[in-house]
Automatic annotation (TrEMBL):
Keyword tags: Coiled coil, Hydrogen ion transport, Ion transport, Membrane, Transmembrane, Transmembrane helix, Transport
Coiled coil: 102-136
UniProt record similarity statement: Belongs to the V-ATPase 116 kDa subunit family.
Topology of this chain in the membrane: Multi-pass membrane protein
Transmembrane segments: 424-448, 469-486, 549-570, 582-602, 638-656, 757-778
Keyword match Chaperone: no
InterPro entries per UniProt: V-ATPase_116kDa_su, V-type_ATPase_116kDa_su_euka
Localization: Membrane
GO CC annotation, single: vacuolar proton-transporting V-type ATPase, V0 domain
Protein name, as recorded: V-type proton ATPase subunit a
Function (record text): Essential component of the vacuolar proton pump (V-ATPase), a multimeric enzyme that catalyzes the translocation of protons across the membranes. Required for assembly and activity of the V-ATPase.
BP GO terms, sorted: vacuolar acidification
Pfam families noted in UniProt: V_ATPase_I
């Protein structure tokens, strides 16, 4: 919108007052309703009111259409998820816009979803079969190795026994029964076995449970698989062990099978016949190759389908979102009695009337409607929304103000002044032109790459920093300015504009104190003389300077706030606020702290040694005492008495007259309303509703008086506390300067003094990290928050109500942006 205004089609941007708004009514023929709302969505200049607030979403006219587009949006979300999983990025800039029929798109999306779901199901089955075959091959290999080694051992044992039979009997010779069993295969016990894979982490519990369940009547052999395998059930890579469990009896087999099922062990058939084992391995290997080829072909076909979807995804998604938002808006309109027209009401800026009417005419022409849309402005006492036309530079500053509260319709907007005062107050606390240059470089990186970054998904902190890039730019520029005034570059002073005005009286002073310094040159032309840094008088001098400067700036900004309350009162034609709020507040603040600011300036100008603390304290405690050496100008005592009297008078001036005058105004407005002509039932109900809605029927004097008393006490106490609050400018500036000095002297200079490259390198790295982490991140955040508080509390509470509500027009651009979020 801001770009449109810059193009010349709209009046020049005015941030001081929000745009003039109007409540408009549109009577739209049914046949052109869709096209009309679509054109208005492209325009983005109307905030529609919900005229069907009493109806549930299912009772509204276009509930079926919204359900349809909701289902289409679900299918598009499914496509996006599948593309993300496959690593396919949709084209962000689709080709030439083509007219897509919504019904055809619905059918096409359904077909594509069914095809993709079928592909996924087939691929899942193939992948599961493939993973099972891979596991089966591992079982065949590992179990085959075990059986072959067992056979070799058995053969060796058989040969050993046969050799022992021919020789002499010994203690190790088997008994007669054992010999019979070995010689007669029919008398040998046949053991059954189960083979499969079990997760490695479950192997020990698996083995223990089987042993206990069968009371030790089993033999378990485990072999580790070298690499993780994909589990056929979960589809995740898992480290597994191949197991072979030997058992005797059907009961043991049943128990083992149940335990395998409980532990998620996959079982596979296995034969003792080595010939069949070799055939099974070759058969499984062949099936694995076939399955792999089938999976690759399926994935290629699926990737091709997703790529086809991705080429038009953005276009389809935008169409579905826009259509859904159109029908959401149509559901906010009310049907005419004849059910041939839709009635819409909404807020729009006055400057947009011509554009809205042009959009309505185009919609009637495009939809071949015989009757055009009727556009009329309604007169209402309802408070309009607040709309500021901002651009990418001013929007961040306006957001700072809106975070406190949205401006009431057409009240003075502090955002105009915040553009300058916010970065300036930040810079007073952050003043160092070295640190300012670092901030400037960071802001410039964001600004130079803003086109690229604006289209990317950023993290929360990065996105917030990117959104405030122009605020950071202004803060950096003002920090460089105040840093030059403080003459600090990473706490190091430089003779930027001229040599120092002071020199040593003799060689013994060594710049350790100003006692040995004499003025030999003209005064340093701009900022603080570099000779002050490092001297004994540095802290007393800079503390005095920054403290007094903070008070001057604070009083000036609070006076600006009070003056803006005068402009608000003039604009809203509220003379009571001028006479009984603006004038007494201005008198009270300047009688005390305006006078203090004057004393500071006089003391600086004259070089007086007067104690301002003493002057201000005894102005209240002993106003008639002589000032003595603390007198700064003639008749100062008389001036102080007059100012003190004005300050005392301004308090009841703020408190008492306004509630009584409001009561008199209310009586005058409603005088003669005791006897009124009889009205019809509908008219009387309408009058009562209007009275109730605007609160004009009753006047509670006690509430108004208490409110005024609270406001008066808040201002009187706030004048003191708010002025003291501005001393944070001095405190944070001092803290920043001292931290910077400590890091420079105790880290960088200390490392430099060792004359060792390694120590110097470590010291430089530490210095960079603490400078970035503490001074450029933590101190920046601290100064930012304190500047925020000074604007919200000390400045804005003097005039800013902030109880309005924002203008949110129906716009396709905002709909798409919110959905992307």
């Amino acid at each position: 919108m801001a770009e449109a205004r810059a193009g010349g089609c709209c009046p020049p941007m005015d941030l001081f007052r929000s745009e003039a708004m109007q409540l408009v009514q549109l009577i739209i023929p049914i046949e052109s309703a869709h096209q009309t709302v679509s054109n208005l969505g492209d325009l983005g200049l109307i905030q529609f009111k919900d005229l069907n607030a009493d109806k549930s979403p299912f009772q509204r006219t276009y509930a079926a259409q919204i359900k349809k587009f909701g289902e289409m949006a679900r299918k598009l979300r499914f496509f996006r998820e599948q593309m993300v999983k496959s690593g396919i990025t949709p084209l962000t800039k689709p080709g030439a816009k083509s007219d897509i029929d919504v019904d055809d798109l619905e059918v096409k999306l359904g077909e594509l979803e069914a095809e993709l779901v079928e592909m996924n199901a087939n691929n899942e089955k193939l992948q599961r079969s493939y993973n099972e075959l891979v596991e089966y091959k591992l079982v065949l290999n590992k179990a085959g190795e075990f059986f072959s080694s067992a056979l070799r051992n058995a053969t060796a044992l058989q040969k050993e026994l046969e050799s022992q039979q021919t020789g002499e009997e010994s203690l190790d010779t088997p008994l007669l029964l054992d010999r019979e069993i070995l010689n007669d295969p029919s008398k040998q016990v046949k053991l059954g076995f189960i083979t499969g894979l079990v997760p490695k982490e479950k192997s020990m519990p698996f083995e223990r449970i089987i042993f206990r369940a069968t009371r030790g009547n089993v033999y378990i052999k485990l072999a580790a698989v070298e690499e993780p395998v994909v589990d056929p059930v979960s589809g995740e890579k898992v480290e597994k062990n191949v197991f072979v469990v030997f058992y005797s009896g059907e009961k043991a087999k049943t128990k083992i099978l149940k335990i395998c099922e409980a532990f998620g062990a996959n079982r596979y058939p296995f034969t003792e016949d080595f010939g069949k084992q070799i055939l099974m391995i070759s058969e499984v290997s062949g099936r694995i190759s076939e399955m792999k080829a089938a999976i690759d072909a399926g994935l290629f076909h699926r990737s091709h389908l997703l790529q086809t979807i991705g080429d038009q995804f953005v276009q389809w998604n935008t169409l579905v979102r826009n259509e859904k938002s159109i029908y959401h808006t149509l559901n906010m309109l009310s049907l005419d009695v004849t059910k041939k027209c839709l009635v819409a009401e909404g807020w729009s800026p006055v400057f947009g009337s011509k554009q809205i009417q042009d959009a309505l005419q185009r919609a009637a022409f495009d939809s071949n409607s015989q009757v055009g849309t009727i556009f009329q402005v309604l007169h209402t006492t309802e408070l309009p929304p607040t709309y500021f036309c901002t651009n990418k530079f001013t929007s961040a500053f306006q957001d700072i103000v809106d975070a406190y509260g949205v401006a009431k319709y057409q009240e003075a907007n502090p955002g105009v002044f915040t553009i300058v005062t916010f970065p300036f107050l930040f810079a007073i606390m952050f003043g160092d032109w070295g640190h300012g240059i670092c901030l400037l470089l960071a802001a410039l990186i964001f600004i130079i790459r803003e086109k690229k970054l604006s289209g990317q998904k950023l993290g929360d902190i990065t996105e917030m920093t990117f959104g405030g890039r122009y605020v950071i730019l202004m803060m950096a520029l003002f920090s460089i300015y105040t840093g030059v005034i403080y003459n600090e570059f990473f706490s190091v002073p430089f003779e930027l504009f001229a040599p120092s005005a002071y020199a040593c009286r003799d060689l013994s002073c060594r710049d350790a104190t100003t006692a040995g310094l004499i003025k030999v040159l003209p005064t340093y032309p701009f900022g603080v003389d570099p000779v002050w840094h490092g001297s004994r008088s540095e802290l007393p001098f800079l503390n005095s300077l920054k403290m007094k400067m903070s008070i001057l700036i604070g009083v000036a900004q609070m006076n600006l706030g009070i003056i803006l309350s005068y402009f608000n009162a003039i604009y809203f034609k509220n003379s009571l606020n001028i006479w009984f709020q603006f004038i007494p507040q201005l008198i009270f603040l300047n009688s005390l702290f305006g006078y203090l600011s004057l004393l500071i300036i006089v003391k600086w100008s004259t070089g007086s040694q007067a104690d301002l603390y003493h002057v201000m304290i005894y102005m209240f405690l002993s106003p008639t005492d002589e000032l003595g050496e603390n007198q700064l100008f003639p008749r100062q005592k008389t001036v102080q008495l007059v100012l003190l009297l004005l300050a005392l008078v301004s308090v009841p001036w703020m408190l008492l007259p306004k509630p009584f005058l409001l009561k008199m105004q209310h009586k005058a407005r409603h005088q003669g309303e005791s006897y009124t002509p009889l009205q019809s039932t509908e008219e009387s109900l309408q009058v009562e509703t209007n009275h109730d809605s605007h609160g004009h029927e009753e006047f509670e004097f006690s509430e108004v008086f208490v409110h005024q008393m609270i406001h008066t006490i808040e201002f009187v106490l706030g004048a003191v506390s708010n002025t003291a609050s501005y001393l944070r400018l001095w405190a944070l500036s001092l803290a920043h300067s001292e931290l910077s000095s400590v890091f420079f002297e105790k880290v960088l200079l200390l490392a430099w003094g060792y004359n060792n490259i390694l120590i110097l390198l470590v010291g430089a790295i530490v210095f960079i990290f603490v400078t970035v982490g503490v001074l450029l991140v933590m101190e920046t955040l601290s100064a930012f928050l304190h500047a925020l508080r000074l604007h919200w509390v000390e400045f804005q509470n003097k005039f800013y109500e902030g109880d309005g509500y924002k203008f949110y027009p129906f716009s396709f651009g905002s709909v798409n942006y919110e959905d992307d979020e």
